[in-house]
């Protein structure tokens, strides 16, 4: 039993070595950047934030309407739902050949699409896809 535990722990040695190398590399890069960074001269122009070659004037970021984020979330939602259709479509013929419940296979996907379509119609009715700036 003791020999088995030793073998299992020995399998983690490369992981620990990799972790030590990663932490050492990160710490080394940070130390080198601090040492090299203190040697340069700090001027007001160098310490100013750089944004697309223009002097930063005004607020940091422009405000967007909440509708913009709603449309973005709806896009992600429907995009992810469509991703679920691809694996089903790829194996549909094989599923029909192997399974006796052919109507259940097609019916489950049709019900999935109907529910998705009802959600899409609801979003259209609520005018979630329209925003004006």
Written as H for each helix and E for each strand, in order along the chain, the element string is HHHHHHH
Count of domains = 2
Shape descriptor = flat
Tally of separate helices: 7
Which spans have pLDDT < 50 for at least 5 consecutive residues?
none
Question: What does this 3D model show about the protein?
Answer:
The chain is mainly α and 133 residues long. The protein has two domains: 2-47; 66-125. Helix content is 71%, strand content 0%. It contains seven helices and no strands. The longest helix has 27 residues, at 13-39. The radius of gyration is 28 Å and the shape is flat. The relative contact order is 0.06.
Topology:
Blueprint: H1 2-10, H2 13-39, H3 44-47, H4 66-83, H5 85-90, H6 92-98, H7 102-125
Describe what is shown at a glance:
By secondary structure, the chain is mainly α. 71% of the residues lie in helices and 0% in strands.
Sum up the structure in keywords.
133 residues, mainly alpha, 7 helices, flat
